[in-house]
């Protein structure tokens, strides 16, 4: 049995995964890496790592929504978002979703190691280059609207991402273990709530919010 904290890495780019692994070893034990959000949920439940490093824009289920689910099913696991998205709304949503840390892919390797040790101590850590006082930021964020999308449910966010990725209704139904009719219902509700006229509008909307990568 190792004394090193156990890490699970989640990113849809193999080069990024390899780079992260080189940075965190030998201080930490990498127990696995996954390339989509649904594989992340399965791996987290099976491997029970101490910390997960997760990107925001991942296929099948983005990192923010994966974090929300993980905070319910595996609340003991610490989450650090490692992303190229530096806008403050992403920081807000990540921390609200259950992440304990937020690091940029352009950060220095030492910052990533600092972030891991900080969240292991029960602290919150945001990349210094973002210039955010975490405590003050969270107090202010609590007064802001809670959702990125107007009134979308967690299920509708999942469907929105899969539609934007070009998945058919049948594929979406199989991935989410729901009926095709349920998918059609959610798609209709999403279109109505967002005022989108076509799939291109939905795709652009999802991309602008980091639900998919372009």
Average pLDDT score: 89
Q: Name the helicity range.
A: 40-55%
Number of domains: 2
Biggest pleated-sheet summary? 6 strands, parallel
Q: What's the total helix number? A: 10
* Strand order across the largest sheet: 2-1-3-4-5-6
Shape: globular
N/C terminus separation: 41 Å
Number of strands: 6
* Low-confidence runs of at least 5 consecutive residues: none
- Derived structural class: alpha/beta
Order of helices and strands: EHEHEHEHEHEHHHHH
Estimated radius of gyration: 17 Å
Give the assembly state of these chains. Answer: single chain
CATH superfamily of the largest domain: Response regulator
CATH-assigned fold name of the largest domain: Rossmann fold
Q: Tell me the name of the CATH class of the largest domain.
A: Alpha Beta
Tell me the fraction of residues in β-strands, as a range: 5-15%
The CATH architecture of the largest domain comes to 3-Layer(aba) Sandwich
Task: Provide a concise account of the structure shown.
The protein has about 210 residues and is α/β, with parallel strands linked by helices. The protein has helices at about 15-25, 35-45, 65-75, 90-95, 110-120, 135-140, 155-165, 170-175, 180-195, 200-210; strands at about 5-10, 30-35, 50-55, 80-85, 100-105, 125.
């Amino acid at each position: 049995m190792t004394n090193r904290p156990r890490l699970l890495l989640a990113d849809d780019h193999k080069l990024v995964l390899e780079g992260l692994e080189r940075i965190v070893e030998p201080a930490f034990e990498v127990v696995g890496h996954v390339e989509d959000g649904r594989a992340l949920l399965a791996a987290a439940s099976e491997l029970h790592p101490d910390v997960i490093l997760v990107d925001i824009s991942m296929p099948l289920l983005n990192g923010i929504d994966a974090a929300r689910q993980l905070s319910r099913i595996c609340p003991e696991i610490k989450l650090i978002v490692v992303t190229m998205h530096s806008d403050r709304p992403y920081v807000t949503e990540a921390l609200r979703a259950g992440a304990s840390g937020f690091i940029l892919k352009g950060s220095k390797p030492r910052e990533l190691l600092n972030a891991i040790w900080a969240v292991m101590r029960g602290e919150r850590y945001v990349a210094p280059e973002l210039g955010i006082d975490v405590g003050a930021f969270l107090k202010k964020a609590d007064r802001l609207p809670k959702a990125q999308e107007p009134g979308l449910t967690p299920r509708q966010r999942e469907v929105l991402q899969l539609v934007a990725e070009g998945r058919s209704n049948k594929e979406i139904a199989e991935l989410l273990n729901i009926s095709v009719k349920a998918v059609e219902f959610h798609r209709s509700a999403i279109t109505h709530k967002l005022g989108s006229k076509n799939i291109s509008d939905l795709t652009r909307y999802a991309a602008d919010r980091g639900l998919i990568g372009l």
